[in-house]
Structure formats: C-alpha cells, structure tokens
Amino acid sequence: MNKQGNRRTAWSQNIDCILMLLNWLMSVRAWWLRSKYEKQGFWSFKLTCRLCLLAWVFCCSAFVHAQKPTSDETGASAEQSKLPAKVAPIKFAEGGKFKMLYDARQRPQAVLLAGKVFVVFNGDARSTSNEKGRAFPMLTAYDVRTREFTAPVRLAVDSSSDHHDSPIIWADRADHLHVLYGCHRTPGVHLISQSPVQASTEQIVWKRASQIAPKLSYPCVFRMANGKDLVYFRTDGHTSSWTYRVSTDNGRTWGGPSADVTDLDSGGRLDWSSYQTKIPSADRRFLHVAYTDYDDNKHDADPQRFYNPKYDALVSNEWKYNLSYLKIDSESGVVFNSEDARLRTPLNIESSKKLCEIWDTQWRGSGVPPVLALNEQGEPAFLHVLSGDSLDEHCYYYVRKVNGSWRKTAITKSSHQWNSGHLACDRSGVLHAYVVVGQEYLEGGYMDRHGGGRIEEWTSADGGETWGMRRRFSPSGARYEDWRFNNVQPVVNADGTLVHGMFIFYGWKHETKPNASAFLVDEAARTGS
After folding, report:
1. Cα-flanking dihedrals φ and ψ of residue 127, to 5°?
2. Residue (of 311, 327, 235) closest to 279 by Cα position
3. pLDDT tens, position by position, 157-175
4. pTM of the model as a whole
5. How many CB atoms neighbour CB 116 within 10 A?
6. Fewer Cβ within 10 Å of end Cβ, the chain: N or C?
7. Sign of the four-CA dihedral 64, 526, 105, 411
C-alpha cells in the first residue's frame, strides 16, 4: 500500500474511534442530566462544553497521528523507529539494475560539497532478455539542510548493459565536480563541471575532461597529499595489471609510475588475477591496498584447474583466495609490504605470495575483496567475508596487525561471498562493521548473483577482539519483506575524508527485474559531522 493509502486507512480507523467516543460521551451526558443536577442548567451547559472540548482534543490528536509517516513508509527498521525519524533510510532513486551502487572495488559514488551530497548510480533501467538490463549513469543531489533530493538526471545519452560502467564522482581542489563512467577495459567518459559548485548552484553544466588512461576497470579516486589526485585501477581484463595515475592540476593532465603495481600473471604464471581495494593513510601520503588472488583459467582452459581441495569440488573463477597487502608512497612511487620492505614492481604471483600475503585462507574463498579502514592507531584493518565449512556458509572477519602478526576475529555469519559491507572507526575508537547477512545462501536470478540480504551494524569497543550487534541497519517492515540489500558505502567529503554517519546502499525485491532502489542514511548530525 502506498503512503497516501496508509494514511487514509489510519485516518478512517481513527474516525471510527471518534464516533464511538462521541456516542459514549453523549450517553454519559444523558445519564448526568437525569441525575440530581438535572435542573441546574448551568452545570448541564458546563458539562456539555467539557465533553465537546474533550472530543475536539481527541480529534486533533487522531488527525496528527494519521499524518505521521509510519516506519513502513520511511523504511525504518524496528530498532530505528525508536530513534528520531531523521535516521530512517531515505529512498532517493528507483529503476536500478544489478550493482545500482557498486561494491568496494569502485568508489566513491557520493561526495559532500557546498552543503549537498552528490550521488551517482546506475538507473532508469529497462529489462532485457538476458536479465542484465540496460541503465544510464545518473546524478542526484541531497540537500543536507532540507533533507530533500533533487530529481535524478541522466549523465549520458546511451544506456549500457555492463554493470562495470557504473559512475564514480569526486571533487577537485577548485570545487569542480568530476564524474567518470563507462570504464570496463575502456578509457570511459570523464566529465567535469563547467563551473565550481557552490551552495547557490541549482544546475550543473558538464563538459568533457581529459582522458585518464587508455583502458580502465574498477577506478577508485583519492585525494592525496601535496596537491595530488590519484586514480587506482585495473588496466584491462581479469589477468591484467593494476596501477594508478596522478594529477596535480585538478584532473587536467595525468601521469603514472614507470612500472605497474601488480601483474600477477607475469613471469610465466598465466591467468593469475586479483581483485583489489584501497584506502589512503591518515596523512594522505600512502595508499593502502588489499587484494585476493585466483586462477582465471582462460588460456588452455581446464575445468580441473578450478578444483578446490577443501570442498572436494570443481568451483569457478567466482571464488578468490588468500589476502595480501601492500602500500604505495604517493610521493616517491615506492611500494612496500606490511613489514615496510621495499618491493620490486610489478609483483607477480610468486613475489606476491612470498612478500605480500598476510593470510593463507587454505582454500576458503571470497568473491568481493575486503573493505579497508584505519583503526584507532591509524593502521589499516580489513573487513573480509570468507567461506566456511562449505561453499554455502560464510563469515565476516575483522583482520588487523597486533604485535607484529595478523590477527583474524570472526564477527558474524554471512549469506554470500559477494556481500560487500563497510568498516569504520569512530572518534572514540569504537569500530563499526556494516555487514550483509541472511538466513541461507542466496541463489536466484541475475539480480541475486552477487549476494544480498539484510544489513546489520556490529560494533567493537576493544580493538576488534569482541563484537556485538547494535541494530538492523537496512529497511524492514511489510513494504520491504523479501527485499535484499547490498554494497554499503560511505559518503566522502570534498577532501576525500569520510562523512561520519552518512551512508548509501541499494536494495531490490525481484531477482530478475532491474527495478532496484537506492537509499541514503543521514545520521551525520547525531555523530557530530
């Protein structure tokens, strides 16, 4: 039922109660007038006025109650409905396809500039016979003061069925907005706002900006120290290298290192691939990089190469293994491992395993690579989903370095290897893990192929040693029964730092139809951001 229908129903129910109350009040009045005060007209008049006033107050209260949105209308969960209404997830777009908002490999998709949050996503989708759907890169803006969104607008003339084409957005030091979309083994389309964005800006005029690289996949943009903007990306297909480009003139020109960072299938080990996620250090000098590895099995493909000895089964390239770490000095271009040893690049699978691997997962697999955060000490930490005793069982782990060794602590179970959450450490040192969970392994149509479930917030106040569930984070109630949600990601400030208490994610109900919805949670005022 829609919002208006819910309110009409609530009001009609209150009308019935009002009529019953008035009938009872008139009965009381009749009895009173037959009492010993029947002849005292003054008291009869006074009583009537009091009864009418009581009925009027009740009517007003019922009307106000009927106008209030219910938790089902706002999308608030049972836990959230106990909090101020402003913390309920706000739906800001519909008609999304698979990965309407992207997972941890491709960021950011929301930036706060001049009092508005600018969000990009895949939207205005239409169905296709292969269930992928076709969508456009879209833009909308959220006014932090009024808590209202503008109508979404298309950023391109043509739609795409490739979910990798999803847009990202960032702001440069001159307050111009940049958008990059259409990146999957292609240069993509790089747009820049014609003028700096100000609080008074009502409409953004875009123009084409410079090409960043001949081919990009999974671009992520970071504002680094000393006037640098850094784009980290994969250079081609699955087995290609990962590298970065740097701009010191607000994105007009781009340059890169002499050698790529990783190229796992070089050195004679064909088809070795990785998925990577990144986060800058607190001083913005270093870029922390985490990655998984896998055999893509493309050259001389042999199904036996997908044999997983832990599960005694042939799997697929959807499963990625182990966890490795490196960091890049954006000043010198030097790459280091977790022991601060200088590395020769590009790393291949042999040097990567020997020098950068921090967790041999013993054939337990993931899909999405881990989410990174800086802990209370400013060191990198990871939220990683990994299979368990079977390929249908998964668990989230908190991974961090303690006294020189990497410690892993289980947080809670998950329902898919592609459930992409978020990890953050607040100003008081409390860790917050936003995880995607479910009762059973999710299998279904194309929309379900990379997981989904309900989103929960888990916290730890002892450095990640123990965890407890704080609340359900995603919408619930009758409207969202049987919905799945995924790909929690933060909103960033113009300088690239996180906006504490502000997040976006998307959800869907139909496993084959591209009609997902996107949501924003704004708790920034409550967290002091």
Report:
1. -70, 155
2. 327
3. 999 999 999 999 999 999 9
4. 0.84
5. 21
6. N
7. negative
